[in-house]
Specification:
Pfam families: Cytidylate_kin2 (PF13189). InterPro entries: P-loop_NTPase (IPR027417). This is Cytidylate kinase-like family protein. Keywords: Kinase, Transferase. With 209 residues, the protein is α/β, with parallel strands linked by helices. The chain has a single domain (6-207), classed as P-loop containing nucleotide triphosphate hydrolases (Rossmann fold, 3-Layer(aba) Sandwich). It contains 10 helices and 5 strands, in the order βαβααααβαβααβαα. α1 (17-28) crosses α10, α2 (36-45) crosses α5 (88-105) and α7 (134-145) crosses α8. It is globular, with a radius of gyration of 18 Å. It starts with 5 loop residues before the first strand and ends with a helix.
Length: 209
C-alpha cells in the first residue's frame, strides 16, 4: 500500500503560511518545500536560480530580454538555448516536474507554486489555504521586514495580486476561493501554533494517518 501523501498550502502574504507549513511538516515528519524548490529546479535544469527567482509565482512572460547581460550566467554551464528565449511557462514546466518527482518519492509539504494543481491527480493530498486579517498581516510584515504600515499595505496588495494571477493562470481555478481547497482557515483567529494543531488534526482525519 502506498502511504505517501502531500500537503499543499496556498497563503496570503503575511498570514504566516510559510511558518505554519514549516511547523506542520516538522510535526508530521515530512519534508518541507517553499523557495527550496528554486535551488532544486536550478540544479536539475542547469539554469541559474535567478531565472526561477524572477519568475517565482508570476504569470507568463518572456524574461530573456530583461535578464540578459546581468552579472550572472544565463545557464550554469555557460550555454544559451537555441531560441534565445526563456518564458515563465518553461520555468513553470521545469518546477512542476520537480514537484511531481518529489511527491512520487516521499511524503512532503509544498507552499505555493500551484502545487495543488500540479499534484491534482495524487491519490493522497490535502489542499489548504491560509488567510489572516489585514491588521495581523500588516503587523507581521512590519515586524518581519522592518517596514512601515504604508509599505506593508502596498506589498500585500502587490504580492496577493501576483499570486492570484499566477495561480489563476496556470490552474484555471480561483486563488483563495473556498471551492478550490479542502480547508480554508484564518490564522489570526487561532494564532500560529493553534492553527498548526487544527490543520494537523484535519490532515490526520482526512488521510487516516
Amino acid at each position: 500500500m502506498n502511504n505517501k501523501y502531500v500537503i499543499n498550502i496556498g497563503r496570503q502574504l503575511g498570514s504566516g503560511g510559510r511558518e505554519i507549513g514549516a511547523k506542520l511538516a516538522a510535526q508530521l515528519h515530512i519534508d518541507f518545500y517553499d523557495k527550496e524548490l528554486i535551488n532544486i529546479a536550478s540544479k536539475e535544469s542547469g539554469l541559474c536560480k535567478e531565472f526561477f527567482e524572477k519568475a517565482d509565482e508570476k504569470t507568463s512572460q518572456t524574461i530573456f530580454g530583461g535578464l540578459f547581460g546581468m552579472r550572472f550566467p544565463f545557464i550554469n554551464d555557460g550555454s544559451i538555448p537555441n531560441n534565445n528565449c526563456l518564458s515563465n511557462d518553461a520555468l513553470f514546466k521545469i518546477q512542476s516536474d520537480v514537484i511531481r518527482e518529489l511527491a512520487e518519492k516521499k511524503s512532503c509539504l509544498f507552499v505555493g507554486r500551484c502545487a495543488d494543481y500540479i499534484l491534482r491527480d495524487h491519490p493522497r493530498c490535502v489542499n489548504i489555504f491560509i488567510s489572516a486579517s489585514k491588521e495581523e498581516r500588516i503587523k507581521r510584515l512590519c515586524k518581519e521586514k522592518g517596514i512601515n504600515t504604508e509599505k506593508a499595505e502596498d506589498l500585500i496588495e502587490k504580492t496577493d495580486r501576483e499570486r492570484a494571477a499566477y495561480y489563476n493562470y496556470y490552474s484555471y481555478k480561483v486563488w483563495g476561493a473556498a471551492a478550490t481547497y479542502h480547508l480554508c482557515i484564518d490564522s489570526s483567529s487561532l494564532g500560529i501554533d493553534e492553527t498548526v494543531a487544527f490543520i494537523k488534526q484535519f490532515i490526520e482525519k482526512k488521510l487516516g494517518i
